Structures are given as C-alpha cells and as structure tokens.
Amino acid sequence: MVARADIPSALRLEGPFTIGRGDIGPLNVLFSETFTERYRRDGLVGVRVPPLNPAIWHYAVADAGEGAMMWRDARGVIAAFNIAHRSGVEGWMGPLAVRDDCQGAGQGKIIVNAGIDLLKRSGCSVIGLETMPRTMDNIGFYSGLGFVPARLTVTLTVDAVTSPRAPRLLSSLRSTSRDDAIRECAALVHETLPGFDYTREIELTQELSLGDTLLLYENDRLTGFALCHSVPLVEGRTREELRVLKTVVRDESSFELLLVQLADLARRSATARVAIRLQGDYSSLHARLLSLGARVRWTDLRMVLGGYEERPPKFGIALSNWEI
Description:
Blueprint: E1 14-18, H1 24-41, H2 54-64, E2 68-72, E3 78-87, E4 90-98, H3 107-121, E5 126-131, H4 136-144, E6 147-159, E7 168-169, H5 175-192, H6 199-207, E8 211-218, E9 221-229, E10 241-249, H7 255-268, E11 273-279, H8 283-291, E12 295-305, E13 317-320
Parallel strand pairs: 4-5, 10-11
Antiparallel strand pairs: 1-2, 2-3, 3-4, 5-12, 6-11, 6-12, 7-8, 8-9, 9-10, 10-13
C-alpha cells in the first residue's frame, strides 16, 4: 500500500491493486479523460482520445498479469493505473496515467516506480516506455526517474492488397502443428534476442481472437513471423488497421516478402491497411518501406531506464511494439 505522510490526505491513493475484469469500464473512462487532457495541455484542444476497445484492455491486463496495477482514492474510485508488461527479459510500461486532480503530489512517481520495481524483480534486463516526442513535461518527468531518451518509433502504414501467395497463418494449423510453430517462433526470438519471449502474446492473441500470427518459411525453416491484431483499437469503431505488435525476421531481405503477406492478411481481415511501428535504428528498412509506398503516420519517443537499455538483435530485424 502507498504510505506517504508528505502527501495531503485528500490526494493519497491506496494500492497497488491488481486490475480485474470488472475494473476495465472505469479504467477505460480514466484513460480517455486523462489522455485527452494531456493533448489539451500540449495545445491540441480539439483532440479527444476515445475509450479503447474492451477486448484490447482484456488482452493488456491478461498479458501483464500482476503487472496490471491500479490505485484508488479515498472514495474507492480508480485514480491511477500502470500496465507493466514482461516478455522474457524485455519489460515495458504502458499505458499508465494518474487522474488530473491527483497529480502534483508525487503520485506519478509512485506508480512508475511500482512498475520499475516489479520489472526488476521479474528479472527484466530491458525496462522502458514510450511517450509523445512533443510532450516536454512527460520527457522531463521520466528523465527525473532515471529514464533516458533512446530512439524514435515511427508508425508507417501500407495499404491492403491481394497477394498471389496466400499467407501462412498460425490459426490455419492443427493443434499439434500450431504448438510446434509457437515453439519455432520462441526459438527464433531467443536466437535473435536471447532471453526475450513473445509466446504469451502469441497465445493470448489466438485465445482472445484478436488477430493472428503470420509465419514465413523457407522450405521447412521458419525465417520470420509477425504477430498482428485486427480487432478495432477504439471502442465502437470498425476495423481500420492490421496492427503489427511483434516482428522477427532472420534477414532484412525477407522483410519485403513479409510485408506483402501482411498486406494480403489485412485484405483478408477486412482492414484497410497494415500499421508497422518501426524503431528508428532501422534506417535502411525505413527507406525501403517508403520506396514501397508506406506512409508515415505517427511518432513516439522510446525512453529506457538507465542500466536497462535495449540491445540490437544478433541478426535480422526485431520489432517490438511498446503500446497495446
């Protein structure tokens, strides 16, 4: 429990409590209101951040497990939350927020440090988060907690098209073959980034029917995969994008084929385009995607905790989305 004598009693929060399914409704309202206010303070007065699709919250909470944390005010109302995710030794936080009327009393530091402590205890060697590059308050706040600016994440989109070669999907495999494919994905990730593991995200995506995992083979050898969500991100919206959450390929030259297959999967999923979040150190891949017609849509600033920085893959391309 939070016990800070220097915080006024009216602003003290109790927690962390583990987020349950019944908390997702009020949590979604808090998310929308807090992030809308954040945009307003940044000068984007007309922007309203809508509530997320509850299915996405269920995924995030299930993926985070004990890292899905919330805090309540004196009335028992949810006033803050932090979703801390672990993929093997890779740890990241998001989304996280403190209600506006509870800010300015050190509560933000408490919820971020709770996430850091949990990820450290879990054995994470990478700890980070993403924030908006234009938001100086956020960058300054996280810097004061030991985070340092790392690289820019650029969201690019490619229009859905039909490919003459149908994509090979995890969902199309029989149970035993599916388990084998998931183990192959885990082995490829471990080869590329030792200690990282996206098995839980792949299995949850299948279990909750949120999307699929595209598999790329050369003969009988797995050369790459892409974990994607096709369900709408925003509550009440139609499908707009096939969002790529995790991608690993053995060689950059294979990425173009993977992209063609993703564009076909987008068409089959009744989405208009593929959205890929590309970390900024893949400059040659960025140029290649633009030459193939990709459009730049959004940017986020990756920040990492000092001493817990990311490391490049041993080979190929490894993209990991730090947002739900």
